[in-house]
Each structure stands twice: as structure tokens, then as C-alpha cells.
Design goal:
Layout (H helix, E strand, L loop, with lengths): L8 H21 L5 H51 L6 H21 L1
Length: 113
């Protein structure tokens, strides 16, 4: 078995030039895209971009709808809390009248026995 021989600078430059010319030949051998193919590709890209934009707009609308529902829910909770807090506060005279009515009812219940 032969030992590995390190290629010289001349061999490496020749190999690089050969690879480059081979790649250029392959590139030149490729068929040229006609205008119809290019237009079709451009139309596909535009359609894809439109679909993505519509998808983003739908997602944005959904997020905004959820945010609005959340805001409305919070506002409704605040209104409910304010309504609960709006229960009239009994004055001292009202409490005394209620207490007196309760005592009178108890006294009348004892007399009815």
C-alpha cells in the first residue's frame, strides 16, 4: 500500500481550477428560465405572501377579539362590584327601628303563647 502523498501547491491549484471550470460548465448547461416560468414563480410567491398576510391578520383579529372580551369581562366584574357596593348603608336610626321591630315581634310572640 502506498503512503499518502501531500499534494503540492501546483496540484492543488490545478484541482481547484478544474473544479471551478466543471462547476461553470454545469451552470452554463442549465436551461434558461423563460419569462412564463419566472412569472409563474413570482405569482406563486405573491400568492403565498398573501396567504401568510391573511393568516397573520386573522390571528391578530382573534387576539384583539379575545382582548376585547377580557376587557368587557373585567368591566362587567367592576360594574357588579360597584352594584354590590351600592347597597344602601343603614343609618343608626334605621338600625334602631329594625331592632325595635324585632324586639316587638318577639314580645308579641311571647304574649301569643
Amino acid at each position: 500500500m502506498a503512503a499518502y502523498k501531500i499534494p503540492s501547491f501546483q496540484e492543488r491549484t490545478n484541482a481547484a481550477a478544474e473544479a471551478k471550470s466543471k462547476a461553470l460548465a454545469q451552470l452554463r448547461a442549465r436551461p434558461v428560465a423563460d419569462a412564463a416560468t419566472l412569472a409563474a414563480g413570482k405569482e406563486r410567491r405573491l400568492a403565498s405572501e398573501r396567504a401568510e398576510a391573511e393568516k397573520r391578520a386573522a390571528a391578530l383579529a382573534e387576539r384583539e377579539e379575545l382582548a376585547a372580551a377580557k376587557r368587557e369581562s373585567k368591566a362587567e366584574a367592576i360594574r357588579a362590584a360597584e352594584a354590590a357596593a351600592a347597597v344602601p348603608v343603614l343609618t343608626e336610626a334605621d338600625r334602631k327601628a329594625a331592632r325595635d321591630a324585632k324586639y316587638a315581634a318577639r314580645k308579641n310572640a311571647k304574649r301569643a303563647r
